[in-house]
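[job 0412] stage=fold_complex status=start
inputs:
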Amino acid sequence: DTAVSQTPKYLVTQMGNDKSIKCEQNLGHDTMYWYKQDSKKFLKIMFSYNNKELIINETVPNRFSPKSPDKAHLNLHINSLELGDSAVYFCASSQDLGRPASRFTEAFFGQGTRLTVV
Amino acid sequence: LAKTTQPISMDSYEGQEVNITCSHNNIATNDYITWYQQFPSQGPRFIIQGYKTKVTNEVASLFIPADRKSSTLSLPRVSLSDTAVYYCLVGARMSYNQGGKLIFGQGTELSVKP
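[job 0412] stage=fold_complex status=done
writing structure:
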């Protein structure tokens, strides 16, 4: 049973379109994330949600809008897609330890969604 | 969060031990050192985490000297399936419910040859 699952795995779309990527985790984790990996393999965090509340928003264009209907789901909606949005998008989750200045817990990543904007 | 520096690529042969060193000169007292592995077309996968000295699990060992300004991931007897990108991350959560802001560097692309 997949711990963190994303759909779709591949997404090819035209510039200007609006698309969504869905993510679900069955690990009971409190925190979910979206990461973007570009063609040079750099992984950059985009958003982090804790119990449906937005915690981190890393200077991402407001064309990107995450939505967390419950703590097991974090979807990413992208409006007016641009060529530069082409990348692999990873969803991840981890369990918040609830203590300040504590170690990072293990993050579980999905398989990724390869978005190609043409 | 402390910046990390690691070799861009490494080559090895099956059966060899591979050591990947990561420099993190500005590591803070609260920071932990974590390594992730990423296979092609997959998401990163947690390998090991440590704070000081040595940590070992079924996959790898992590050596951290006393000054903690560097760390070495050791993979014993690598096989072809260990070909992947290995990321060294350094950091800590700074406040309750902040959520882990993992900062990935460039990573080390390990190529294991027969």
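[job 0412] summary: The CA atoms of residues 5 and 111 of chain B lie 19 Å apart.
[job 0412] exit 0
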